[in-house]
Amino acid sequence: MVTAKTAAAIDRMKRRIEDMGVLSISGIRKEFPGVVALDNVQLKIRPGTVHALMGENGAGKSTLMKIIAGIYQPDAGEILLRGQPVTLKSPLDALEQGISMIHQELALMNSRTVAENIWIRREPKNGFGLIDHGKLFAMTQELFDRLNIKLDPKAQVADLTVAQKQMVEIAKAVSHDSDVLIMDEPTSAITEKEVEHLFTIIRDLRARGVGIVYITHKMNELFEIADEFTVFRDGKYVGTHSAKDVTRDDIIRMMVGREITDMFPKIDCPIGEVMLEVRNLDLPGVFHDISFQIRKGEILGLAGLVGSKRSNVAEALFGVTPAASGEILIEGKPVQIRSPREAMDHGIAFLTEDRKETGCFLILDCLENIQMALITRDHATAGFVDQKTVAKLAEDMAARLRVKTPNLSERVENLSGGNQQKLLIARWLLTKPRILILDEPTRGIDVGAKSEIHRLITGLAAEGVAVLMISSELPEVLGMSDRIMVMHEGHLAGFLDRAEADQVKIMDLAAR
Amino acid sequence: MSNATVQPSANAAKSQRRLPPEANILLVLVGISLVFEILGWMTQGQSFLFSWQRLSIMILQVSVIGIISVGVTQVIITGGIDLSSGSVVGGVAMFAMSFAQVSTYARAVYPSLTDLPAIVPILLGLGFGAMVGFVNGWLIAFTKIPPFIATLGTMVTVRGFAKWYTKGQPVSFPTEGFASIGKGMMPVLIFIAVAIIFHIAMKYTRYGKFTYAIGANMQAARVSGINVERHLIKVYVVAAVLAALAGMVVAARGQTAQAGMGLAYELDAIAMAVIGGVSLSGGRGSIIGTAIGMVIFGVIISGFTFLRLDAYYQEMIKGVIIVAAVVADVHRQKKRVKKS
User: Fold this and answer.
1) Residue B301 or B206, more confident
2) What CA–CA distance (Å, rounded) separates A359 from A354?
3) In this complex, which of A37, A235, A399 lies closest to B7 when CB atoms are compared?
4) Domain assignment present for B7
5) What is the pLDDT of residues A446-461, one digit of tens each?
6) Residue A495 backbone class (left: φ over 0; alpha: ψ -120 to 50; beta: rest)
7) Element (H or E) spanning B128, and its range?
8) In a domain? residue B130
């Protein structure tokens, strides 16, 4: 019998949880040798809300999330889960107490199936105590149906695209039915269409009462999906507000403590002769009949959804995986590009999409990272690197790009994402490229570094460099490009001029 | 999270250099030496360290494998492994020695090719090593099979060659010239020369920088314009040539070559590198570290002998030390991952 009294008590408790939040943390402090990563920060997540956590790289967002997910232990402070103080000893402990996390770096087992990845440690068993694969795949299919994910549960994770892997990660986190779900930059590897899908999933979870912590650098996502947001700056709590009450500029001001007047400062500069011309480039099964031109001083934006094979075209131009047929002309002369080395000989530079996988030498220091491309061609006598000259060049370039590091003997793994990206740009600028290919130049980096990189790119164009810029962020493509080339599933979908282009027209071409 | 922007002059100059990783390994060496010193006074009533004879024997014992270890270090820094070096020692010992015999010996392998100047067998031996290294490197770079398997294959094949070459007969009686590369402290001098050359190469040349780059991130190395395949071949050739050199030193010292020579040397060489801080996951380590690792290895063996510990125990303890060194490396990696 539920008496009126107990009903009222339950009601009070519910309200209390609403009020306290499903997860409430306060006074958290975390120090690393020489650095205070978090200083007396607080965060309150209400059930059934999406709470965005904002801040520049290095603001302490990821550190706090790692504390909530049980990866780090705080030096001080209190964590209340459903109103009860808890200690989260390990990721497994956090998971069992109802907190799951989707990491920024994908952490799936490549050689296992999608289903095995999702249900690891929780596989259904048959009568012999062995894994019941039939049931495993059925459970996965059920989960995918619920989330409207179109993936084969039996597919090998290694065969999936980055975006599909991200979807598997999300499904895995959802499958735990946690009270708190942490998403660290879930959209950094996926395109607009998949972002929409993700948002549908998030709204569904929100309706079920899950408290969602959402870390992002993308402002428009914040306004689209978040109910509340908290801003951190340099390891300190700045404030919590309802997303309805503020503007984009307010948030940027809170994050950086200064105003960014122009997010995409494209300078108009004279556009010269044709620098690079590509005719009928073809790689069977990947991309087909790609033709375009880039002039000196021109920024050609390349847009397209995941699976449009944008990056493959860039890789072909740089000789990583050369095209099977077609012509590449530089300043009107046909050239052969069969390896990165040959591409560099023609003055091409290529900033790859994935700075951890194909960009940085994480365990080497900044100097080695900056100089590596340069010394493959220049500044060596009888094999001995002219280290004095090269170090000077590298230091000047790092200073020009405002790379934040105590010194260049710092290991790159200790730098923030934005600084790693600047370091890689420095690596390529040292080779004095005539043609610069940038694949997602500002993915996963903070607002301040982003606008610095934008200014740098447009500055290079002004010096006469021909730039090909691939990006999944439409405002970036629209703001930076003189012309926009759109690809759709390995084919050219069309070109748009700066004046006529807008998000709708691009998506129209990209999605068909 | 330090926010000081790099200033070309001021900040770089006052950069606080951390202690090099070699310092820790050196500390381990000092610690182990002191333990033996104390145990020495306690059980034997004499000093372990202050015996020139003991130290010179110790360093002689390890420097042959030290030569191999300098090459293996470079292979491990690329993220690979070389299991063939012990077999190369045996194969090259047999092969080179057969061109280094004196004419007064009636049963020379090539009776018409005796009393040759020492340079001939040496070059032939190094060439043989280069060939094995090329095969290793080519297999790893172009067929993409794991280095473990590729070098396991050449290990077995080259050992087979060593046995087949003279149908198991030892090859003896080298010329004075050839024998001189193993005489007295020559092996130690050769080790020192090799270590200095490759210390310089690894630190100041493209060769070294590319080796570290490939071990740190092979994809990034390729995109930076490094010809990864060609470079891997170079590194495996260097490793096998150094193993060949070690093989000739051993043969010259013993004045005889046998097919079983160098058995399991590859494991000791790998162990020295790992004890010296070379990371099995690639990209990290140095020749100096390996040299210290070699001395630690020598101190332990010589220390056990000094304490009159049974040879069987010595081997078992050696195994434990190798595992401990790898555990220490893995532990360092873990700490690194947690930090980032």
Assistant:
1) B206
2) 6
3) A399
4) no
5) 777 888 888 889 989 9
6) beta
7) helix B119-138
8) yes
Average pLDDT value over all residues in chain A: 86
Nearest by Cα to A29 from A89, A75, A64: A75
Q: Which of A71, A363, A413 is best to mutate for the B interface (most B CBs within 10 A)?
A: A363
Residue A351, min C-alpha distance to chain B (Å) = 9
| Range(s) of the domain holding residue B161 | 20-333
Q: Which residue has the tokens 């801040």?
A: A55
Q: What is the count of structural domains for chain B?
A: 1
What is the tens place of the pLDDT at every residue in B3-36? 444 444 333 333 445 677 788 889 989 999 999 9
B6 contact residues in A (CB cutoff 8 A): 395, 398-399, 403-405, 407-408
Residues of A with CB below 8 A from B19's CB? none
Listed residue (B204, B226, B331) closest to B280, CA to CA: B331
pLDDT tens, position by position, B192-229: 999 999 999 999 999 999 999 999 999 999 999 999 99
pLDDT in tens, B226-260: 999 999 999 999 999 999 999 999 999 999 999 99
CA distances from B83 to A3, B68, B92, B136, B195 (A): 77, 11, 15, 10, 20
Interhelix angle A417-429/A366-375, nearest 10 degrees: 30
- Residue B140 structure tokens: 């790893």
C-alpha B133: how far from chain center: 14
A114 neighbors A152 (Cβ within 8 angstroms):
yes
DSSP conformation letters of A262-317:
-SS-PPP----SEEEEEEEEEETTTEEEEEEEEETT-EEEEE--TTS-HHHHHHHH
Identify the sign of the CA torsion B306, B307, B313, B317. negative
Interatomic CA distance for residues A250 and A253, integer angstroms: 5
Domains of chain A: 20-256 (3.40.50.300), 260-347+433-512 (3.40.50.300), 365-432 (no CATH)
